[in-house]
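User: Hello! I'm new to structural biology and keep hearing that structure can be predicted from sequence alone. Could you demonstrate with DsbA family protein? Please show me the input and the output so I can see what each looks like.

Assistant: Of course. The first part below is the input, the amino acid sequence of DsbA family protein. The second part is the output, the predicted structure written as tokens.
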Amino acid sequence: MTFISPRRSRPRLLHAVLAAGVMGAMAGPVALPPAYAADTEAASSFTPAQRQEIVGIVREALKTDPTILSDAIAALRNSANAAQQNAARTALDSHRAELLAPAANDGVLGSATAHATVVEFYDPRCPYCRKVLPDLDRLTHEDTDLRIIEKVIPVLGQGSLIASQALVAAFLQGGQDAYFRMQRAVMNDSTAPTVERMRTLATQSGLNATRLATDMNSQKVTAILEANLELARAIGLDGTPTFVFNARQIIPGAVDYDALKKAIAQNRQ
């Protein structure tokens, strides 16, 4: 995986600024990253007069060199980015097996035995998830050693839950073929999702609408969706779509064809 590296050196004055709490005194509270824990402990030994002297020194320094403040902000941002990337690395390592092999009820585009694996977490009501569908089809048609594992997660309210239940129920009824037929119907539909609407779409997709409506509220469908959500939370997902490339890199949000193809190439085993 490629991660953003923190800055390897920072001006000594930044340590004094952060340790003395000057940033907080000047611009409100600032959450300090763990890298500054020792400096923060040292700050507790300063007398009020010493703290005031440091404030004066920093204010004077800012007048002559305003870049000090931007450097301090950049240092905090870089440290936060590094911590976030480290957390992502740990999460991907911990769930590597789950992210490299499809679960029994996952939709899979492309070759089931491919070496390049992309996992997409998506919500069927998400407009960006709908927009990227043609790109996913194109990628798997162009690359015969690629598979895209689809994990549906309802994160956009009751309508998303109903649509997600219908997709999983379609898989239980007829496997991959039924799942993708129902997916095309659901994700090209502009009508608000209801159980009756799912019955209509199921009939149009050649499925047993009565069975689908019954299965939507089954324990098995609930368990599958809960497992998808649990894995999504474990890797720190905060929106849809989110893509995971060979359990090495996470890219959240709307991603176009070129960015997807580049990430696949960079993370290919």
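User: So the tokens describe the shape?

Assistant: Right, they're a compact way of writing down the 3D structure. Reading them back into a model, for example: The longest helix spans residues 158-187.
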